[in-house]
Amino acid sequence: MKGSCAKPVLFTCAILLILIVAQENRVAAVGPCDPMQLSPCLETINKGSKPSELCCVKVKEQQHCVCQYLKNPNFKSFLDSPNAKKIATDCHCPYPKC
Predict the structure, then answer these.
(1) Would the CA dihedral through 13, 92, 62, 40 be positive or negative?
(2) What pTM value is reported for the model?
(3) Which has the closest alpha carbon to 89: 58, 50, 38?
(4) What is the Cα–Cα distance from 98 to 94, expressed in whole angstroms?
(5) Are the C-beta atoms of residues 91 and 55 closer than 8 Å to each other?
(6) What is the pLDDT of residues 22-62, one digit of tens each?
(7) How far apart, in whole angstroms, are the C-alpha atoms of residue 88 and residue 39?
């Protein structure tokens, strides 16, 4: 049971971290904010591993949502984590200035 509760929390955290990282690189076609699109980044959030190419693509697609998530105290601590900043660096997405 303990693992099943942690997975949704970690997944949500991963998504939010990615959004923060991608805020500065605006995409031409802005889509809806959908943290589930950041699921390819879950391993990086959990383990600090190098983000996949798909993770970086998804971060860039969702970058316009980062400041929205930073306003939520439940997500801010995850977005400020070292692994979120690692994703920003590795995906060449500046950390947002909201």
Answers:
(1) negative
(2) 0.64
(3) 50
(4) 12
(5) yes
(6) 554 444 456 788 878 888 988 898 899 999 999 999 989 98
(7) 15
